[in-house]
Amino acid sequence: xxxxxxxxxxxxxxxxxxxxxxxxxxxxxxxxxxxxxxxxxxxxxxxxxxxxxxxxxxxxxxxxxxxxxxxxxxxxxxxxxxxxxxxxxxxxxxxxxxxxxxxxxxxxxxxxxxxxxxxxxxxxxxxxxxxxxxxxxxxxxxxxxxxxxxxxxxxxxxxxxxxxxxxxxxxxxxxxxxxxxxxxxxxxxxxxxxxxxxxxxxxxxxxxxxxxxxxxxxxxxxxxxxxxxxxxxxxxxxxxxxxxxxxxxxxxxxxxxxxxxxxxxxxxxxxxxxxxxxxxxxxxxxxxxxxxxxxxxxxxxxxxxxxxxxxxxxxxxxxxxxxxxxxxxxxxxxxxxxxxxxxxxxxxxxxxxxxxxxxxxxxxxxxxxxxxxxxxxxxxxxxxxxxxxxxxxxxxxxxxxxxxxxxxxxxxxxxxxxxxxxxxxxxxxxxxxxxxxxxxxxxxxxxxxxxxxxxxxxxxxxxxxxxxxxxxxxxxxxxxxxxxxxxxxxxxxxxxxxxxx
Length: 501
Description:
By secondary structure, this protein is an alpha/beta fold.
């Protein structure tokens, strides 16, 4: 069995969950579910990032302890996951004692290997990013490139990480592994950052107490990024009681992150792992931003925010999952809005897939007393499904869930056309066409079954209900083959999968 380890970025708990968090969790979950369908040994990690100055500042503004703020907001992020049907295997919090201990162990190894030193740091700092900016990152007006807020000049004595010492090794990493960062545009961006010349970076903070204590200098805490980046490794040491999963799953197969944190995950992170004598991950996949329907980055002040909770309440989790994967190709920016959700729900989920399922089951009940005929299937329709499962696997391997979903949906539409072409209601009125009707009904049930297996990763609730109604709950990818003949069997009545809203 092949091990497959996939992670999201961990969410910062100085604010409430928003659609960007939902998008990253959903797209990563689609990949994890698909890989489980293949029979791979999957571990899926997500969680929350709870240390650093932004958390301490937010807690101070509210007049509460940072741990209390972290506890409250971490629960909000954790509670959202089951509402989105996220199938994560573990939820890490960077305030976990086991995480902090393993961070200290790894970074102590970095220190013992001679990759740290103490010095005076002075630079332009963004409190919201918790990051010092180098000159070529700063916008006009001395502003942060991410938040466009004015940077602060700070100076303090810190421990430094010798990032510059890994210049050649990182360049070699990018030369030897062209799919280390995906898609290609982000690979080029990360490679250019390395090629521009790496500077040593601050590893610790002296004036901040909310963080993981530096074991060789307890007056310092680790700079939040080094604490946070290690979560993907540390979680494997304690995610299951009494079992260390590190050898089983490390290095990770895919880290899925947003483009605003690219340099940390594609430059700093592999360098730290190298410094600790640990293997680097196989791939880092970088997704884009969600934009408002007006094409601008989502912002409450602009009033163009799509609230995930509103979508969940109106349309359900399958609709939100389907819409985000369908409309925003992973790796690109994409505009989203409630009009788009409504259109996809009504036109595709309800009218195409849901209607196909309802018509098929209703006709089996009407014409064959609820039992699928045991007979051959239509070879012409079967040809439309040839290679479909393999094609979906190929696209998921490229982390192109949107294209994989389109391949499946082409067959949803083909099955709907098949109903119109074969017109089973006319065949049912012709006593001599009984065998033809059997073939049409058996073929439709088989087509719906295969489609539902392939859709389990995308819309798990609806597809699971449909497979159960068909009496064929097997959702393994091995079962996603259009059979030349079916054994028949009873089907259950089914309420509409996507009722009118």
